């Protein structure tokens, strides 16, 4: 005779019936407790059952259409990340390697689309700025379209950092990798923008070591990336029951406040004496006829001639290692001719070199990257689309409003100095645009519509190298009709720029 013992608990009977006949999935938490519904109280299983289920952590970063076609493994960090556990089939358990390989988190499409938008804007303002001056860099104070490109790159670099370092094992090893990447990016920037390459009109190369430009776009990105990455690796994370980016990452916000305080103290507090430079020789020489003298003797001046940012670069980097064609050459005071030459009778500071990616502005550039890092934290910790958009929009509104407030208080919006309100305004704008792209691409599924920008974002560094080194232009100039001058690049210059 075969005897069958029926469980006395109605829940156990229902669970056994579901498992034997309906194969209904049961919810199992990380403590080995099982329930057929989140509302029902769980019961404890035997240790053999809990150890047979692989512990695979999964972050659902793909869009909704892709998620419907996949089964989600058990999220064992549901309580830590405030997520709802996914359904998990208990019999038979898959292998851990199979789960990790199948449910590996893909790239967030809106990140690549945003990065591709930055590359597109860079191409637009570089080649269209001479045709349409309104989209080129503002000469000194103000915001033009070109002034958004650099902070947008820094913002999206910070967002990507939060995803890359959401789980750090060995901090020292991670620090070595960060320093190595930042150093490579810095050296690549020196090679591309240090004066080694002579442009599309000249196939020669080489630079005088006494006139190398040490700072540039990639150099600034590498410095901001290094600061933000070290903050993410080493600063402590405070856990709260409810996810709060401000309180959980309060130490990173403290670093942001410290960087802004140091920047403001140096910008307004340093005394700038009279200074001189020589634009006609390699080294500063008093025997040259092209010696210019700029009279300052001021403190807290934010003009092109006597600001402390330029003084710091001249003392640390050297006047011969700065950018020789600053944007303030387009000011009315400099009276630049149509050929791009500044008249001799213009003020002395019009002829002076100035680096818009200097040392002091790199402090606030790191602030932009850290703000982007907070957007990345929201992306990692929160899985609900609407909650992400709500928190991103609130953070964007706060930073943008703070920038507007500082502008009304009298602080100029200046890209060359990378003022604090410029960092806040552009970071808030980047946050709003990122919300729109996330809504279109990752929520509504219009990824195909922006596939070109996504491709540019995936290959952003390669495109930047091709454009900065003028390799793309040189290759296009190699295809001509009958004579080398009759190519597409010369035709564009003849039709638009010269007119």
TrEMBL record:
Coiled-coil stretches: none
Region of interest: Disordered: 62-95
Tagged with keyword Transcription: no
Residue intervals of the Heparan-alpha-glucosaminide N-acetyltransferase catalytic domain: 107-231
TM segment ranges: 113-136, 148-165, 185-205, 217-237, 249-271, 359-382, 389-410, 422-441, 461-481
InterPro entries in the cross-refs: HGSNAT_cat
Keywords: Membrane, Transmembrane, Transmembrane helix
Official protein name in the record: Heparan-alpha-glucosaminide N-acetyltransferase catalytic domain-containing protein
UniProt source species: Opuntia streptacantha
């Amino acid at each position: 005779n075969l005897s069958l013992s029926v469980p006395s608990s109605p829940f156990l009977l229902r669970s056994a019936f579901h498992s034997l006949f309906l194969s209904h999935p049961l919810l199992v938490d990380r403590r080995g407790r099982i329930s057929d519904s989140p509302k029902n109280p769980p019961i404890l299983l035997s240790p053999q059952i809990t150890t047979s289920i692989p512990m695979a952590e999964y972050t659902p970063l793909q869009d909704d259409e892709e998620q419907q076609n996949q089964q989600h493994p058990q999220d064992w960090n549901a309580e830590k990340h405030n997520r709802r556990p996914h359904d998990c089939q208990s019999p038979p358990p898959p292998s851990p390697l199979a789960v990790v390989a199948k449910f590996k988190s893909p790239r967030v499409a809106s990140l690549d689309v945003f990065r591709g938008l930055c590359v597109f804007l860079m191409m637009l303002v570089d080649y269209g700025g001479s045709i349409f001056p309104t989209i080129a860099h503002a000469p000194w104070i103000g915001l033009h379209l070109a002034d958004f490109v650099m902070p947008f790159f820094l913002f999206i670099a910070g967002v990507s950092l939060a995803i890359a370092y959401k789980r750090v094992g060995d901090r020292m090893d991670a620090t070595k990798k960060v320093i190595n990447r930042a150093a490579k990016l810095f050296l690549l920037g020196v090679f591309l923008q240090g004066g080694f390459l002579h442009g599309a009109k000249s196939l020669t190369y080489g630079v005088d070591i006494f006139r190398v430009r040490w700072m540039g776009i990639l150099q600034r990105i590498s410095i901001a990336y290094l600061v933000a990455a070290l903050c993410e690796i080493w600063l402590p994370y405070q856990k709260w029951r409810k996810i709060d980016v401000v309180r959980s990452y309060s130490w990173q916000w403290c670093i942001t406040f410290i960087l802004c305080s140091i920047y403001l103290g140096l910008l307004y507090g340093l005394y700038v004496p009279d200074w001189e430079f020589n634009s006609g020789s390699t080294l500063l020489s008093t025997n040259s006829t092209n010696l210019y003298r700029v009279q300052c003797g001021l403190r807290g001046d934010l003009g092109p001639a006597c600001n402390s940012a330029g003084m710091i670069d001249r003392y640390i980097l050297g006047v011969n290692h700065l950018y020789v064609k600053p944007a303030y050459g387009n000011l009315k005071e400099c009276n630049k001719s149509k050929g791009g030459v500044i008249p001799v009778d213009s003020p002395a500071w019009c002829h002076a070199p100035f680096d818009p990616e200097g040392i002091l502005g790199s402090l606030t550039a790191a602030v932009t990257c850290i703000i982007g890092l907070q957007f990345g934290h929201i992306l990692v910790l929160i899985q609900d689309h609407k909650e992400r958009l709500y928190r991103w929009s609130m953070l964007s509104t706060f930073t943008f409003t703070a920038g507007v407030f500082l502008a009304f208080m009298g602080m100029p919006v200046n890209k060359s100095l990378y003022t604090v309100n410029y960092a806040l305004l552009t970071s808030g704008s980047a946050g709003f645009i990122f919300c729109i792209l996330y809504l279109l691409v990752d929520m509504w599924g219009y990824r195909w519509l922006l596939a070109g920008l996504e491709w540019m974002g995936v290959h952003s560094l390669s495109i930047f190298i091709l454009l900065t080194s003028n390799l793309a232009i040189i290759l296009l100039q190699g295809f001509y009709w009958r004579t080398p001058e009759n190519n597409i690049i010369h035709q564009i210059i003849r039709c638009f720029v010269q007119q």
